Structure formats: C-alpha cells, structure tokens
C-alpha cells in the first residue's frame, strides 16, 4: 500500500520567531522542511505566566508577546517559512489549556485553508499545544522532543508531564536530541528516533580556516581587547549561570567576554562588567562570522535539572570552528570529553579557561572538526521529513 504524503507541515513551535533564538534546532529543521512543502511555524503559547517580582523581565515578556500577536500570518523571505502568532488566553489551568486548544485548532484550520494545505502533518515542540493537535486531522504527528519541560522553573510539573504523555500517545513518532530522555521514555510512543543535531559545517570551517585569513570581522567586534571569549544562543535564567559569567569576565580582563543572542533574562549584573559586550539576536547564517573571531567558546550553563536533558546546538558549531571549548559538565557533553574542557565547579571552569587560552594545537582543531564533519541539518531535517511523510 502506498504511503499517504502530506502537502504541508504545521510546526507547533517552542519559541516565538519574532524575539527568541532562531538558531534553535527546531527552527533549523522547520526552515529546511519549508524548502520542500509549505511549512507554518506557530509561535509558542508558553507554559507559564510571567509573574512580576518573581519571573525575570516579566513586563518585557508581556510587551514582546503583545507585539508578536499583532503580526498575524507572515512569510519569512529568507527561509520561506510562514510564521503565525496565534491568539490565545495566557492562562495555564487545565480548563484554559483546553479552551486555548479549541481556539488554536480553529486558527490552524483557517491557516490550512488560506495556504491550500489539505493533508497536513504536525510537528509538535510545545506540550501545551497538544489540545489543539488532538482536534486536528493529520497525515502524521511527530513530537519534537527537544527538552524535558517538566523541569522548567515555575511550570506545573504534573500538568506538563500529563500533556507530554498525551502527546507521546498521540504521536506516530518522537524525535529526540538527548539519548537519556529517549531511553527514559522508551515504549511510551509508537516510534522513538534519535536525531541529534546538525551543523552548518562548511560555513564554520570556511569562516575560520586553518591557514589564511579568517572571514571579515563583524564591526562590533573590531578593536575589542583580546582574548575574546564568546558565547552565543538564547539566554534564559534557568539555563545560564550568571555568577559564573561574571567570574569569567573578571578572570579574562583585560580581554573581552562577548555574548551573542536575545536577552531572555536579566543580564544587568553581567553587562555591568566593563569588559562584557552584548550583541542582540543575529540570524543563524551570521553565527560563523562571529564565532570565527572567538579565541575560546564557552557554555556557562547551570548544572540543574533542566540542563541535565539539554543538548545545545552550539557545541557542534564550536567544534566545527575548531577553537578550544570550556563547558560545565552535563550528560550531553560527555561524548566529546577528549575534545573539550569540562568543569565540575566554577574554580575548575576558570582553570580550564586559562589552559584553553594557552592552547596551540592544530591536531586538536582537526580532531574537533572531524568529530562533527558528517553532521548536517539537511540530514536531520530529512529524517524528520520521513517521519512526517513529507514527499
């Protein structure tokens, strides 16, 4: 029997396209699927209500979401993705989630009608959207299992896990980026697939060749005191270790700590350090031009419950760039133990940073690049496309 193919993908996203990190793995996949079939990115409806005085930059979060909601349905001219900011009530009780599910399902029906999508598949990254998914008719449903959302601070753990279980049961497959999470949920979904992350390998290698000049330096980095220690990506209070970032900035003086990415948390204490430079959100295509001029790449993550199941896309990009990498020890990093510097404490991190800044090894650069040379976002998206029955 011939398998039915979808003629479009509705991606229930885990970030808001208009103000979150577009380098997220889910966005990378969706952008590539859009090259094959009409693909709609539904901006996240979140999982928790920001509370002034408790949630960092709460008022800023209200304002940016309000601005996002006014955009409606737009098409990104670069990726070809359709971006939709859904109307919803920002409350997360069980009854309100079901109401939002009904509301969102009606909006998705309108989008499919508007774009002429008659046989959609659903790629779901956000568990609070499962009530809407349950109300739809799909060729395939795939759970983009990118994080363990039950560990998100201020979220209702029992409620989120109940939603995740509904989604696992509903889905034809779950695509995992963390093997530990896949093993924990084995048997709860019809098909478990480890997809990992890709990397735009050639972009990073060409931007920082072993011999010859690097790519042109972005203007904001010109003239900064070296060494340049860099981090890029989304910055959230439940991911980033503020105390460690401050210690890094002070440790490398008169060098510069460069942070690239949207501020999704209060960074005022870090930016108060005279040698810290913040660059707001840039496109994924620009990352290599910034990374090429780092002397060391860092991942100063908290060793908390949420990060135990994370797998940052930036690690493979750092490896493709070839420079030394210093991270706080987390399970996803263990496979690259011989190629990076892993710390178990702040003191350990700073000691490793000193060693990394003194590193001078072409052999290590080549080993780092070899470890990720065969990874690509095209391969990852192609596998997810198979699961979604994309022609």
Query: Mind summarizing the main beta sheet?
Result: 8 strands, mixed
The CATH class of the largest domain turns out to be Alpha Beta
Q: Please report the distance between the alpha carbons of the first and last residues.
A: 16 Å
Under CATH, the topology of the largest domain is which? Rossmann fold
Number of helices: 14
Strand order of the largest sheet: 3-4-2-1-5-6-7-8
Q: List the secondary-structure elements in sequence, H or E.
A: EHEHEEHEHEHEHEHEHEHEHEHEEHHH
Fraction of residues in β-strands: 5-15%
Structural class: alpha/beta
Can you tell me the CATH architecture of the largest domain?
A: 3-Layer(aba) Sandwich
Radius of gyration: 21 Å
Mean pLDDT: 91
Q: Indicate how many domains the architecture comprises.
A: 2
Helix content: 25-40%
Outline: globular
**Total E-strand runs:** 14
